[in-house]
Amino acid sequence: MTQRDSNPRNPLAQAGRGLGRTIVIIAVVLIVGGLLLSMFKFAQINEGERGIIITQGAVEGVQEPGIFFRLFAPFTRVETVNVKRQTRQVSQNVASSDKQLYDIDIQVDYSRKTDEASLRAQYGRIGVDDEQLNRFLDGFINDALKSASTQFTLDQVLSDRGGFSQRITQLLRGPGGEGQTSPIDQLYVTLEAVKVLDIKVGDAYAKLLAEKANLEVQIETEEKRRQQIEAQQSNNLFQAEQEAQVSLTTEKGRTAAALEAANRDSQVRAIEGRYWRENPELFELRKRELQVELLKNGNVWFVDPNTDLTLLLDKTTGNNTPAVVQQQQQNQQPQTQPQQPQTDAPTTP
């Protein structure tokens, strides 16, 4: 060793010792800082998420959206759980109640329950991994789909997709058996919706469906045509009934008017006859008036003395109904020759 190196006041030796102390101090600070950082916990929970606070392997609580910070938490961690609405699509080949095979695609929308008890239980049984949850859910959906398909014919599934979806929903929400909970309760999820996306049938059945559709169109067309014919017949019948009613009403009116006129005419005749019977002078005067009217026409009328002149008087009342009155027979001696049959003079009352 030289004298320069052994000198305790050597500047180089002092600088080396100072640098070593600095490095040691920095290392100690880093170690202490690391220890301090490991002792507090920080986590940010976004909307649509929940934080599962786990301390020493046990669920301590549930963190709502926001900031989680704890100064001294060396054995605490926060697991993030997705509580947004999620979608599962399942495709399966199933058999209908009428033994028809077809492929069906359905969509199931669900979300995790957000209450603390459900999140605690779900974490303990399933965890926070979405893939693990989806595997369990797909199994329940397939079972429900097979069970529902055996309760519907293929025609019912094709014509009533809503009813088929409703049946799958009931199977997922209902208990699997006596003393069991429903599938969605076992997974601690909320069933949002079930939809039938597509149904694929074989070529033979598709051909039958096309023929059935054409037949239904023809039946509907014939039904409309039958309804039109029935409506036209009903209209014609109604029109005929109305015309018959009008005719009947008109004829009743005419008959009633004729009866009324005849009744009044008979009353007038009865009154006139009574007047003539009660007033012989009036009757004689009427006979004279009739003779004058006959002479005014320029014709000479020869009247049998045995003719009842009341018939001529009745003619003046305006009645045109012909009447035949038997003439009075005179007492005559029997004749040797056959007597001509008497003819009644047609007169009108």
Question: What features would you describe in this structure?
Answer:
This protein is α+β, with helices and mostly antiparallel strands. The strands form three sheets. A three-stranded antiparallel sheet has the order 3-2-5, with helices on one face. The chain has a three-stranded antiparallel sheet with strand order 6-7-8. Helix content is 52%, strand content 18%. It has four domains: 11-79, no CATH class; 83-201, Tetrahydropterin Synthase, Chain A (2-Layer Sandwich); 202-278; 280-315, no CATH class. The protein is rod-shaped and about 195 Å long. The longest helix has 76 residues, at 203-278.
Keywords:
9 helices; 349 residues; 3-stranded antiparallel β-sheet; 18% strand; single chain; rod-shaped; disordered N terminus; 4 domains; Tetrahydropterin Synthase, Chain A
Instruction: Report the structural category.
Output: alpha+beta
- The CATH superfamily label of the largest domain reads Band 7 domain
What is the level 1 CATH name of the largest domain?
Alpha Beta
Choose one word for the global shape: rod-shaped
End-to-end distance: 187 Å
Helix % is 40-55%
Strand content range: 15-25%
Total number of helical segments? 9
CATH topology of the largest domain: Tetrahydropterin Synthase, Chain A
Order of helices and strands: HEEEEEEEHHHHHEHHH
Whole-number tally of structural domains: 4
- The parts where pLDDT drops under 50 for at least 5 residues are 1-6, 316-349
Arithmetic mean of pLDDT: 79
Could you give a short account of the major beta sheet? 3 strands, antiparallel
Radius of gyration, taken over Cα atoms and rounded to an integer in Å: 61 Å
Supply the CATH architecture of the largest domain.
2-Layer Sandwich
Give the strand order, joined by hyphens, for the main sheet.
3-2-5
Please report the total strand number as a whole number: 8
